[in-house]
Design goal:
The structure is a homodimer. Chain A is of the alpha+beta class. The first copy, chain A, is 28% helix and 12% strand. Chain A is built from five helices and five strands; from the N terminus they run ααααβββαββ. In chain A, strands 1, 2, 3, 4 and 5 form a five-stranded mixed sheet that branches. In chain A, α2 crosses α3. Chains A and B meet through α1, α4, β1 and β5 of A and α1, α2, α3, α4 and β1 of B. Chain B binds a DNA duplex through α3.
Chain lengths: 224, 224
DNA sequence: GAGATATGAATGAACG
DNA sequence: CGTTCATTCATATCTC
């Protein structure tokens, strides 16, 4: 277990007292990396099982290592290698922007399958406008008089309510569409903790549901 | 030091005209941080590849940046956010339901159930705890009379201020320690958008700095 | 300028 | 295999 990472010259006094502070992650020794790299560069990029075992035994001369470590190493090595390749291709195909600097730092990653909520298709400045633009007008903070109700544990309330926090206080919101005017009066606006106001229709009905556990702030719009 | 091994393929020559040596790390501009934070806080915590590209182009208006930089930023942001939650949760759990010494809590690293991101299940508890410690009493929302100040473009404010949002309005905070009482009066409390109040010392001086791009809410504590 | 902290970058370990 | 999470390393920044 105690494969011990690198001899760190720093002085974070730890070690001794920890009873079972397992070093969870394998840190390959320089020699081991050298061997692995040379194998990879020799063309063996995806060694079969028995080859992996042989490599592992080889590496063990320089420190504890498991078959799994070797397997993962090659997998990651392949993945990363390929990705780098792709990066370069994509980068060359993308030379469209005006700025003279294209920053060639290489390496990005990802390509996510499912995302939550696209940042809209709007133009570039839409976001900075969202932040700043949202407050072009005036808002004053609503005076919330609701009493705190924190004590009751947040259990799996099987009733159809969503637990959120409004102005710092726990609040059980009905799951359906929310009538802001009926609930809070004319000029009430709910602002998500990110600073983004929740959209309502022309009748003051919330267009989207509150999200469990999130923090919102109730403010009064001076524009309405 | 021993940085051998790792064939570091990165070619960090960024745009910043570093005369010679070791400027290997991207340093996001304040405006870029603002944009990134606002995207993250708006719910896009893990943008897919094409989104990343779009974001990168947006950021490039304020300085050289690569897709990889954006990718890493979101990765780190998620990771850090998560870990923080965990630490808070662990801390609060320690205080609430355990005899003096509980040494057997040990590890549960093996099973990391949570797969998606934010407030789910376990996180709810931390939120309620966070709020509970703070909201046992009463708060009323501060009446913010500050005029909106959004028009000014987010320029290269190299002055030592931090741009944040308070009650939805842009605000340039001085970098040093902040005197809450002098700034907002006696019972003012700043609450981070996560619901967590910012600690102050007995003189009402903020114990920690505001963080660029974050959203805060100014409330009046009824306890003080 | 040393120490502490924040955070960009890298990579081992998994998941689907 | 592609993607994502967790941990670690390195450096930029802040503090005294």
């Amino acid at each position: 277990m105690s494969m011990e990472g690198r001899s760190n010259g720093s002085s974070p006094g730890d070690a001794a007292a920890a009873p079972a502070a397992v070093r969870s992650r394998w840190t390959p020794k320089p020699e081991q990396i050298l061997i692995l790299e040379s194998i990879f560069n020799s063309g063996t990029v995806n060694p079969p099982k028995d080859e992996t075992v042989r490599i592992r035994k080889l590496l063990e001369k320089f420190g504890a290592v498991s078959d799994a470590n070797v397997f993962y190493w090659f997998q990651n090595r392949r993945s990363r290698s390929r990705r780098r390749q792709r990066e370069l291709q994509a980068a060359s195909a993308l030379a469209s922007s005006s700025p003279p600097y294209s920053s060639s730092t290489a390496r990005s990653t990802s390509a996510s399958p499912s995302s939550s909520w696209p940042v809209a298709d709007e133009d570039l400045l839409s976001i900075s406008h969202r932040m700043g633009g949202f407050m072009e007008g005036n808002y004053s903070i609503f005076n919330c008089t609701k009493q705190p109700d924190q004590y009751s544990p947040i259990n799996e309330s099987i009733d159809n309510t969503i637990t959120v926090f409004i102005n710092g206080m726990r609040w059980e919101a009905p799951r359906g569409p929310l009538d802001m005017r009926a609930m809070f009066g004319q000029s009430a606006v709910l602002v998500h903790s990110s600073g983004q106001p929740l959209p309502v229709d022309e009748h003051g009905i919330l267009l989207q549901s509150l999200q469990m556990g999130e923090s919102y702030f109730l403010v009064r719009s001076l524009l309405l």
